[in-house]
Amino acid sequence: MRICGVFLLLLSLPALQSCSTTSTVSQLYEMADRREVDAELWQAAVQSDDNEQRTTALRLLGRIGGDPVVDLLLPSLQHERPEIRLEAAFALGISGSVNAIAPLHARLAEESNAEVASAIWLALANLAAPRLQSQLVDAWDHEPEQQQTLAQAAAFLWAYHRDKLQQLDRGLVNRLMQAARSDNVALASNSAAALARVRKESGAFRRHILIDTLKNAPVERSRQLLLKVLGANSDAVGDAFLRDILAGKAYRDTPPSDAERAEAAAALVARLDDKALTTFIQAMKDEPSWSVRALAFQSLSAEQVERLRAELQAHIEAVPADRAVLMPILQPIEFRDETEEPAKATADYHDVRKASGTQIRLSTNRGDIDIELLPQAPYTAANFLELVGKGYYNGTVFHRVIPNFVAQGGDPSGRGDGGPGYRIREELSRLPHERGYIGMATAGKDTAGSQFFFNTERNPHLDWHYTVFAKVMRGEDIMMALQQGDTIVSAKVLDKR
Q: Which intervals of the chain form a coiled coil (predicted)?
């Protein structure tokens, strides 16, 4: 029995209230992890005067999701306190229920708090609200302070709901293209990220505008993403521009970075015929940057791989360091259906929450990366800590490293389809997928297990969709140097912060 039960009569009133809140919050976390909706208990929690209890209940209801939770969430969307409305908007946005769309629109029309309004825009995009593209355009012109959020909303909409849209709004594309050359890092990056989601849309982009934007975009992350767009909309002039970048020729005040050269190489791959591609692959033997070689090979289509199998095999012989990148391409596997694995039993939240704040050292063949487990995802953090304690990650490899995106590991099979034999539930939050933040890899809702990924760049389209459970505290340079096939030699717990 916990202290709340043992010393109940000895506690002062404030202590009793704190004890009661702790007990209720624990119960809420455990029910949310089991995906249970006890309407009476949740109703009391979302109406509580205790701020922690109420905001926690809102966030957890959103994680459960579905139509039944919407009625429990909606009253808090009208609460006088903005932090309550913020959590309600986020929860409705991840609920997956279209029943939340109309109330969110109604609230947006009268919302005066900028942070809450931002959450509502993202929620509407996440739910694929009808006619949202034109509404984003209108807001872009009348609410310039929201443009950073509006760009991310476009990224959400186009990344996850393109199939629900009849066509792209060209006005929105044009505004995002202009914003991609902004010196505001978040605005430029979010805008380019949205454009990259629809880079293959026929007729949506013009090569000369893309090149002009690239030459005038001061934010490198924006340029990286715009190079993806150019690759899908290039011509002879665009190809020459991409070759110059790959060759390291300056198209701005300074030479292109290896990250930009990697994107140029990837863009060119789809543009070359087999003869030119054979020459290109042969030239990769002399390319000093692993990221350039890796992203180029990862961009090959299945048809190109089949036709050029001999050349790729020859490259492995010449550059053994690229074996880990090329073998999964040459011998693709059929992934298991992770939804068939049993859900991990829900642990006592009183024990689970102790994992938060724990620091873990991942010793790789390139050096040490120290990470800290975060309180926003307690069950995920506890699961990771448990696996570390079992030595589960020792000797595992980073089986999927995509330059300018993520470095993914945690699969004992080393192929990308392995795990601990069970699945854990998502714990989505408003934590960003910034460089150095660590997310859980999934194959759909509530299918995480042991695989995780480092965000090696800002990835705004992943926000609200993948559990962020840790962040890098030391060793970011090691994280950025990771290559596919690198090994976690050992994972061990350090002192708790």
A: none
Where on the phi/psi map is residue 395: left (φ > 0), alpha (ψ -120 to 50), or beta? left
User: Where does 337-431 show beta strands of DSSP type E?
Assistant: 359-364, 367-373, 400-402, 406-409
Using alpha carbons, list the distances in angstroms from residue 466 to 8, 63, 455, 460, 462: 40, 11, 11, 11, 6
**Stretch(es) of the chain classified as CATH 2.40.100.10:** 354-493
Which residues, 6 or more positions from 39, have their beta carbon under 8 angstroms from its beta carbon?
A: 68, 72
Query: 354-493, what's its fold?
Result: Cyclophilin (2.40.100)
With contact defined as beta carbons under 8 Å apart, do 447 and 340 qualify? no
Residues 6 or more apart whose CB falls under 8 angstroms from that of 386 comprise none
- φ and ψ at 418, to 5 degrees? -105, 165
3 state DSSP class of 249? coil
Q: How many Cβ atoms are within 10 Å of 235's Cβ, its own excluded? A: 11
All CATH 1.25.10.10 domain ranges in the chain, comma separated? 3-126
* pLDDT tens, residue order, the chain (497 aa): 344 544 444 445 454 455 666 888 999 999 999 999 999 999 999 999 999 999 999 999 999 999 999 999 999 999 999 999 999 999 999 999 999 999 999 999 999 999 999 999 999 999 999 999 999 999 999 999 999 999 999 999 999 999 999 999 999 999 999 999 999 999 999 999 999 999 999 899 999 999 999 999 999 999 999 999 999 999 999 999 999 999 999 999 889 999 999 999 999 998 999 999 999 999 999 999 999 999 999 999 999 999 999 999 999 999 999 999 999 999 987 766 656 789 999 999 999 999 999 999 999 999 999 999 999 999 999 999 999 999 999 999 999 999 999 999 999 999 999 999 999 999 999 999 999 999 999 999 999 999 999 999 999 999 999 999 999 999 999 999 999 999 999 999 997 65
Q: Taking Cα atoms as reference points, which of 299, 290, 209, 289 lies closest to residue 255?
A: 289
**Superfamily of chain region 3-126:** Leucine-rich Repeat Variant (1.25.10.10)
Asked if 153 and 132 count as a contact pair (C-beta separation under 8 A), the reply is yes
pTM of the full predicted structure? 0.94
CB 352 within 8 A of CB 29: yes
Contact 50, 25 (CB under 8 A): no
Q: Distance (Å, rounded) from C-alpha 187 to C-alpha 398?
A: 31
Secondary structure class of 400 (helix, strand, coil): strand
